[in-house]
Amino acid sequence: MTRLYSPGESGRAICDQCGIVSTTYQYRDVPFSDGRGLVKDILVGVCNCCGAVVAIPPQSTPAIKAQREKSEKPIEAVLPAIYVDALDLACYKIDSKSSAEFRKKLVVYYIHTMAGRVDEAAQLAEVIRTAPAQFSPSADKKTKRISFKVTESTDAEMRVVMNASHLNRTDVLKSLVLKINRDIIQPKSPKNLRELKLLAAVS
Ligand SMILES: [Zn+2]
Predict the structure, then answer these.
(1) 52 CA distance to ligand 1 centroid (A)?
(2) Which of 94, 98, 147, 197 would be a feasible disulfide site paired with 102, CB 3.0-4.6 Å?
């Protein structure tokens, strides 16, 4: 049964600090666990011993989801069509049944990796300069748009990569696709295949 809770009601939950505790439902402003952003005025179960938020009833989850979506940032770019095709081919090579969502996951994976290796990120302009001829602008100038929403932490990592590489957002995306081409499409056995297959499986 899905139950509607009211403020002042009591319950039981497990508190990380105190163990099994009795709780009281109260309206609170609750920060996201990654510290980025806050959901205002949601009903939560509060530990009667230490005051920590220890339970979130179903009625509060839509507000949390809405707030989380609001805190997502768009990553959008219009790229020469070959770049988007390469991205899709890489996804297909990793897992022929991968979902559309995996395209985003793969890009996010590369943003995250580059943000953790600023020396390598600094080389991204060189990656563009030495792109295979296939990736140079085609005569028909055909383009495709990529667009997805990422968390604030991925957006912050994107800015780290942009700073390290001195590239704008579009060129960072291009350079990541060129890396993906080099790591996944060209080799017989793609780099980090096992890890990437896992990523595809959960997307
Ligand atoms: Zn507690």
Answers:
(1) 6
(2) 98
